[in-house]
């Protein structure tokens, strides 16, 4: 059992994370993730989106669809060089063709090529299995588990790490698992919340909390994490707290 002091820290974090969620949702939500018509398409998208913009992934997925190749059987049977050609727009296409092949090989070996059967597996067991597949790391595995299998796991990405560390809620070099636990230990275990929360963080990262020029003066989180803002803004980017107001972003 937690000590009262630890419980207090936990509930404070819970409150902060829920306030962040509410503010981002008011500004950007709902975002209706993940873009994809089937669990298999979502899984393919999760692999193809590694190190590239989503627009490039969309082109690759559309090309696969145009050629009626977006099924486990077709990805398994197609020549790997031709597959690479089909997904060229997503970048690193030779590597990604291998990764797609590895994923469908796993799907057939373990689940008869059926996403429905895969979805029946217990969440942490499935995560362990996916992490054994060549080219599937934690972020990709968790994206598949959350968005294709509808299981309550929190997806962490570079945007998540960036905004949390800027607000001193984590160390800059905090690991994936540490950040994931921060959310999963302090939020309800809820697929809909985890789905929307990650999508909102991605939107935040793309629109406001960029790597080089965070737009804190129009960010909905500006006042939400007040105790951390003064330090961050004064010490790191020199924005005057008193001159800025949060606004909602269309
Ligand atoms: S207030 Fe600034 S640092 Fe914080 S999330 Fe918004 S843009 Fe990023």
Task: Describe, in plain words, how this protein is organized in 3D.
This protein has 250 residues and is mainly alpha-helical. The protein has 2 domains: 4-30 and 156-170 and 182-243, Endonuclease Iii, domain 2 (Orthogonal Bundle); 39-148, Hypothetical protein, domain 2 (Endonuclease III, domain 1, Orthogonal Bundle), CATH 1.10.340.30. The protein is 61% helix and 0% strand. The chain contains 13 helices and no strands. The protein has helices spanning 4-28, 39-48, 54-66, 72-77, 80-86, 93-111, 115-119, 123-131, 138-148, 158-166, 176-184, 191-207, 226-237. Helix 1 packs across helix 12 (191-207). It is globular, with a radius of gyration of 20 Å. It starts with a helix and ends in a 13-residue tail after the last helix. Residues 229-250 have low confidence and may be disordered. The chain binds iron/sulfur cluster. Iron/sulfur cluster binds at residues 163, 166-167, 204, 208-209, 214-216, 219, 221-222. GO terms for molecular function: 4 iron, 4 sulfur cluster binding; catalytic activity; metal ion binding. Residues 48-207 form the HhH-GPD domain.
Topology:
Blueprint: H1 4-28, H2 39-48, H3 54-66, H4 72-77, H5 80-86, H6 93-111, H7 115-119, H8 123-131, H9 138-148, H10 158-166, H11 176-184, H12 191-207, H13 226-237
This protein binds iron/sulfur cluster (SF4).
The site of iron/sulfur cluster has 12 residues, from helix 10.
